[in-house]
Every structure is written in structure tokens, then in C-alpha cells.
Amino acid sequence: MNDEDWGLRPPYASAPIAYVNTISGQANGRFTYYTADAGYDFLRGSTYKVGGFMGWSYYGQKSDSIGCVQIAAPDHPCLAPGDRRVIGSQDTDWNALRIGLSAETMLLDRWRVSADVAYLPWTDFQGRDNHLLRSYTKFTDQRGSDGSGVQVEAVLSYFITENFSVGVGGRYWAMWTPNERKGYVTQAPDADHAPVTKGPFAADHRMERWGTFLQASYKFD
């Protein structure tokens, strides 16, 4: 993870700094997702079907940032190389409306190809960025909505029996909120250490995820 800042001034730095860029590792990452759809097949044959669907998608991710090495301003070190303490964490939650098309066809007697393509006409994002390498508590609450996105998935399946199949697939997800605003709450580094709320500030949050997966399916008659 790269963390860039421009124009830092006290109390965030001992003296004004034009630009800093630190690099950290990632650990303890995990994600959760679910998708629920309802649809109808408007084309159907003995070896194929094509339909439309509408549904809802949720994606949540949590991860910790470990270590902190300054790579742009050597006069302002972060942590020593090899120091693996946790310096921050990021929690993100996305919700989105899905509208799309689904199709599948039998290639051979036991092989099937299926694909879903969904457009996300509305997305909602909430996040929290915790900064732990401070002498005072600081976190950033992030919020955005009225975004959009896309989700694509394809699976190649093999029918071991008439009802049981195994498959391998790939998926690509992307979501964004272009009109996003964020605010942050920080405990001020002053004598009173009183909580101070600042913002909101303009922000641009996006997510992309792609990968492969294995699956097994059993169809009850």
C-alpha cells in the first residue's frame, strides 16, 4: 500500500513538508460477498437459454497495513525497515443494485458454458480508515453513493452425472462513486485532546476485483 500526502503542516509534521510517500504491507485481509437475483429466461432451447435478471450485491473487505517505510522524503522517516507493527486498518462496504443478462449453452454432451453480465446503476459505499501510528486517535469515515459499476462472470462446467457437476470460472467486479464526499474525526493533538470533526472533503473511491474460482453443483429433480 502506498500512502501519499501533499503539503503537510504542523501538528501532522514538525515542519511543512511538500510531499511524502510511504509504503506498507498488507495483512489479515478478508472479504465477504453475497448476491441475490431474480430473473426470467425469455429464450430457451434444448441446449441453451438466455434470460434477464435483477438483484442486489454486497461486498465487504477488511485489511491491516503493516510496516511503514518512507520512499520520497528521507528526512522524515516513518518506521525502520523490518518493523512489522500494524499501523492502520481499512474497512469497506459496498452495496449495489444489479441489472443484467444471463446465458448458458451445452458445448458437448457433458460440457456447459454459462455467463452473467450485470450493470450496476446505483452503488453505495461506506468505509473507515484507521490511523494507528499516532500519539492520538484518528480515523476517517468515508461515505459515497449514486455511483455505478459492472460485474462479469463466466463458468465452464462438466457434468459427472446428470445432476452433479464441477466447474471452473472467472469473474471481474468494478464499482465506483464519482460524487463521493468524506469527513474525518480526529482527536486533536492539543492540551485538551478534545475530539475535532473536520470535513467533508471531496474524495474518489473505486474498487476492482478479479480472480478465478472452483465450484460444485447438485441439481435436485
Structure characteristics:
221 residues, mainly beta, Porin, 11-stranded antiparallel β-sheet, elongated
Structural account:
There is one protein chain. Helices cover 0% and strands 74% of the residues. The protein has 221 residues and is mainly β. It has one domain (30-61, 89-218): Porin, CATH 2.40.160.
CATH architecture: Beta Barrel
In percent, how much strand structure appears in the residues? over 45%
Q: What's the overall geometry?
A: elongated
Q: Strand-and-helix sequence, N→C?
A: EEEEEEEEEEE
Count of the domains? 1
From the alpha carbons, calculate the radius of gyration and give it in angstroms: 23 Å
Structural class: mainly beta
CATH class: Mainly Beta
Tally the helices.
0
Unreliable residue stretches: none
Instruction: Calculate the mean pLDDT score and round it.
Output: 88
Q: What profile does the largest beta sheet have?
A: 11 strands, antiparallel
Total strands: the figure is 11
**Helical fraction:** under 10%
Write a brief caption for the model.
The protein has 221 residues and is an all-beta fold.
Please give the structural blueprint.
Layout: E1 2-8, E2 17-44, E3 48-70, E4 86-106, E5 111-131, E6 138-145, E7 148-159, E8 164-177, E9 181-187, E10 195-202, E11 205-218
Antiparallel strand pairs: 1-2, 2-3, 3-4, 4-5, 5-6, 5-7, 6-9, 7-8, 8-11, 9-10
